[in-house]
Known about the structure:
Blueprint: E1 9-14, H1 22-35, E2 39-43, H2 46-51, E3 55-57, H3 85-97, E4 102-107, H4 109-120, E5 124-129, H5 145-165, E6 169-174, H6 181-189, E7 194-196, H7 205-217, E8 223-228, H8 234-245, E9 249-253, H9 265-283, E10 289-294, E11 297-302, H10 303-308, H11 315-323
Parallel strand pairs: 1-2, 1-4, 4-5, 5-10, 6-8, 6-9, 7-8
Antiparallel strand pairs: 2-3, 10-11
Helix pairs in contact: 1-9, 5-6, 7-8
Amino acid sequence: MAKSKEIKTIGVLTSGGDAPGMNAAIRAVVRKALANGKKVIGIQKGYSGLINEEMMEMTSKDVSETIQKGGTILRTARCEEFKTEEGQKLGADICRKHGIDGIVVIGGDGSYRGAQALSKQGINTIGVPGTIDLDIACTDYTIGFDTAVNTAMQAIDKIRDTSSSHERCSIIEVMGRNAGYIALWCGIANGAEDILLPEKYNYHEQDIIDHIIESRKKGKTHHLIINAEGIGHSTSMARRIEAATGMETRATILGYMQRGGSPTCRDRYYASMMGAIAADLLCEGKSNRVVAYKNGEFVDYDIDEALAMTKEIDEYKYQVAQIL
């Protein structure tokens, strides 16, 4: 790959949904870039903040006492304007105005598309996978998933206790609009009787009703259903199941609590490594790359290649979840 001019100033932003561990990645970008003799600019509110020139120089002290915090200290926002060619050109022009030679973008697939666009506009850009959904195809790990899935698991354990006490059916809705990884992992970890994934659910609600009825005949006194956000309608589903089975049924939507909280050790460690690698890639003159964790190693891919990859729920893991 051809190398561009020497990078002197590195920008860092977080985009899309927040994820626990993003602060660890920001911290690593800042401190690794500074250690490499570069200046660091923190861009607030994602691509929206870039367009509106909401940015400040960051020092090592600015990221002190941040690794244990959830969310993102740089804040994040959606930005429709940056999806347009005019918005992307404006973003690149603002980078040049502020002397930003390269940017680390921490976020999901949508954020990567923005990074890809900036790269095409001549700004060296590296993506870091930050999303609780674990839905980026090129990587086995995304920042925030480990914390989110543990938060959900602990909440489901608590709900299961009361569900068992009252001999209820509980439908617990976890996050995952288009990806069922949180639902799959929690379904296995929490011992759910039914797991509804966007990638697999056939919308035959009668199958769930029949399963509950058969389980009750065998002496099962409660029933746990993990439902992914992408399927949704948990409250109306609960009413229909109760009417069909006679079993008291309650729906709980865990919602944004899964995005918050202090990140786990894994999220802090992996995010730190990915942030450091991203800073190093920029210092080497690389661009249009994404950092990933694949087969036990930290690697990087071309963004175009990464975005072309697809990811499906592993059939064997899904079968195991159903059997267990």
